[in-house]
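Quick one, tokens below:
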């Protein structure tokens, strides 16, 4: 059980939430919704205990499982821990399994009486592991991992060598494997393919504990949630029913408030008109006017508050200087991580103004290829060549361009040598004007996405390399990005699992990974996008 009473949460000088009280109990499946930057992630991290509220109390009488939207490498008790070990560590059997493996390795160096004692210790650990259901639990962990898209090869891979998307899937499997009473999930469907999303929704719909989930994929989670908490303008409002019902009820409540406010404003206007008429009349009527003024003051204090529609993100990529006919080409690219061969002999050329999509299942090497094209990663074989006057802008899904201890404005200064006033105005278009002096690492996931996009806009590239740019964006910001890319005259190389976004952007060609097969894009490939 999780109970919050009279919470007030601040970020710097800004109040994100005030006077909020709610609970998450067994059987509750709650969706937490709100625009990017409203404070959803900060609220989640406060509930877990990472941050302290400015006011109010939080009661935690349960085993909480928290899944963060961040893709940063988690602190590992053992730096060489594999994905399977990381998942198993969510329960005590994970540590037991590692002790068994350490005992087995020590046996190889022992002989005589020491070896006999080592065998006894190994056997005792093994029997204890089995008695506690260790082998059954290990099978369960592997099943959960498989369902969220982690293959057997990845289970044996050290977590420290994994991509951000792989690490997030491992952490999701770990949280679901843990024996929790309350789940706090922040964007759990990011980096999941279609099958994994479907499995997760079914899992959450039957979860016996309490759940609070943040997601911009909430329509997909309609089957899993039974109520909604809407965070807007520093206040929480509760709604019964799933996300679709929330949208209808939200509009109904807003219309009702607007109607009540109109009636109040009309009544106040009538009274004020009478006050003006009576004040210049007899002493008796002036007394009535003063009584009316008191009534008007009371009515103004009791006015129904109608929240204004939030500001909208305005994305616009400046039309770039034209590049040569072939701004980007890859020849014979090969990449491996240790024994894991990602792709071999991939080559293609992108033409000026073309929209190219990289398609493949999780682990097919799409992000790795994009990083090589951006110059962030180095290929083991082959080369990348830039054409005449080609300038590359790279958006990384893991927000690698955003550093702790550096303000939002300083990130913009690094991206482009433009006057501060221009940079501030650009940040305003992305609704980040009030965060110019904030440490960029403390932004929410959606705000980091907006900052990274603002940095791209400021740098004015004529080749955009975009890796899952719609992750963490609310619907309005996603639509604004799509509109901007649609009229952008430069070249785009895109990785995305967002089927609607890809369909509306309309790529010209696609590269199928890991084979590197090039083909013209058509609607049939959208099925592969959904599986990415």
């Amino acid at each position: 059980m999780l109970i919050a009473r009279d919470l007030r949460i601040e970020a710097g000088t800004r109040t994100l939430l005030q006077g909020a009280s709610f609970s998450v109990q067994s059987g509750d499946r709650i969706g937490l919704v709100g625009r990017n930057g409203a404070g959803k992630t900060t609220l989640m991290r406060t509930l877990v205990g990472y941050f302290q509220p400015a006011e109010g109390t939080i009661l935690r009488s349960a085993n909480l499982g928290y899944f963060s939207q961040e893709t940063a490498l988690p602190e590992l008790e053992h730096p060489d821990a594999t994905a399977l070990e990381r998942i198993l560590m969510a329960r005590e059997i994970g540590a037991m399994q590692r002790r068994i493996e350490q005992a087995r390795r020590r046996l190889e160096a022992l002989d005589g009486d020491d070896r006999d004692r080592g065998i006894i210790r190994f056997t005792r650990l093994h029997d204890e592991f089995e008695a506690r259901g260790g082998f059954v639990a290990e099978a369960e962990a592997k099943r959960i991992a498989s369902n969220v898209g982690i293959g057997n090869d990845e289970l044996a891979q050290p977590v420290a060598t994994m991509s951000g998307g792989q690490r997030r899937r491992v952490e999701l499997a770990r949280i679901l494997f843990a024996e929790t009473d309350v789940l706090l999930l922040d964007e759990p469907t990011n980096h999941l393919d279609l099958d994994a999303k479907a499995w997760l929704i079914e899992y959450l719909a039957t979860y016996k504990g309490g759940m609070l989930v943040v997601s911009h994929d909430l329509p997909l989670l309609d089957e899993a949630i039974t109520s909604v908490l809407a965070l807007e303008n520093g206040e929480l409002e509760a709604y019964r029913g799933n996300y679709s019902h929330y949208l209808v009820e939200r509009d109904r409540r807003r219309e009702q408030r607007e109607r009540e406010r109109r009636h109040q404003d009309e009544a106040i206007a009538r009274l004020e008109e009478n006050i003006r008429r009576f004040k210049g009349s007899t002493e008796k009527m002036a007394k009535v006017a003063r009584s009316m003024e008191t009534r008007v003051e009371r009515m103004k204090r009791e006015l129904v508050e109608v929240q204004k529609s939030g500001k909208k993100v305005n994305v616009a990529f400046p039309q770039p200087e034209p590049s040569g006919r072939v701004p980007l080409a890859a020849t014979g690219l090969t990449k491996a991580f240790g024994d894991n061969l990602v792709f071999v002999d991939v080559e293609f050329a992108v033409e000026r103004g073309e929209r190219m999509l990289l398609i493949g299942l999780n682990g097919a090497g799409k992000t790795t290829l994009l990083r090589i094209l951006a110059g962030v990663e180095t290929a083991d074989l082959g080369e990348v060549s830039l054409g005449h006057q080609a300038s590359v802008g790279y958006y990384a899904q893991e927000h690698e361009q955003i550093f702790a201890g550096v303000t939002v404005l300083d990130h913009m200064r690094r991206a482009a040598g433009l006057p501060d006033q221009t940079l501030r105005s650009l940040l305003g278009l992305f609704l980040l004007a009030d965060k110019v002096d904030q440490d960029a690492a403390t932004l929410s996931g959606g705000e980091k996405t907006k900052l990274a996009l603002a940095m791209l806009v400021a740098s004015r590239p004529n080749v955009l390399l975009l890796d899952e740019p719609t992750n963490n964006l609310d619907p309005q910001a996603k639509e604004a990005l799509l509109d901007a890319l649609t009229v952008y005259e430069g070249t785009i190389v895109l990785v995305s699992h967002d089927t609607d976004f890809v369909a509306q952007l309309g790529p010209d060609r696609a590269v199928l990974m890991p084979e590197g097969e090039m083909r013209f894009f058509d609607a049939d490939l959208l099925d592969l996008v959904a599986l990415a």
